[in-house]
């Protein structure tokens, strides 16, 4: 059962043989983890996210704070309600189908969202009762309009890139216990259209990747 405050119309399947540009699924990178294709299809088809992009950040060295061997998916939600509904469903699907433990930063729990919606409705009624002028949504959002949820799927099997000769040489010089970390970290960034245009995640991460590659090339010279 889905409460009324989280009910969102299911995305309508595209007519014809092909998807629209906004609903297209990005091509897989080389050496993808097994989960990636199913995850992209889930986000696009089942959750109805638009304008999906896939950032292959596995080449960043040193690894970013989000995790090593990082793959990042970015998608646009139609509204804040659609954003929270989709992030919640995605986490539940990952836990149920793949026994993963995703963490969604910025996601309001169902009870928390319900409480905030009630507070906003109550405040709106009180303002109307005293004859106050219409208040902007941003002043009455009660923390509902986050605009951005980061779902850290966690580490999944597969997706390791072949190691370069330089990486293999450095590993031979390391003396110690344990083995290197394997697998891939997947992060799903879900944003409203307004928030996505504001933060420009693709441009920011492209700059980070470019800088990392230049530094690695300088080391090899």
UniProtKB/TrEMBL annotation:
<protein>
    <recommendedName>
        <fullName>ATPase synthesis protein 25</fullName>
    </recommendedName>
</protein>
<dbReference type="InterPro" id="IPR043519">
    <property type="entry name" value="NT_sf"/>
</dbReference>
<dbReference type="GO" id="GO:0140053">
    <property type="term" value="P:mitochondrial gene expression"/>
</dbReference>
<comment type="function">
    <text>Mitochondrial mRNA stabilization factor.</text>
</comment>
<dbReference type="GO" id="GO:0048255">
    <property type="term" value="P:mRNA stabilization"/>
</dbReference>
<keyword id="KW-0809">Transit peptide</keyword>
<dbReference type="GO" id="GO:0005743">
    <property type="term" value="C:mitochondrial inner membrane"/>
</dbReference>
<keyword id="KW-0496">Mitochondrion</keyword>
<dbReference type="InterPro" id="IPR040152">
    <property type="entry name" value="Atp25"/>
</dbReference>
<comment type="similarity">
    <text>Belongs to the ATP25 family.</text>
</comment>
<comment type="function">
    <text>Probable mitochondrial mRNA stabilization factor.</text>
</comment>
<keyword id="KW-0999">Mitochondrion inner membrane</keyword>
<keyword id="KW-0472">Membrane</keyword>
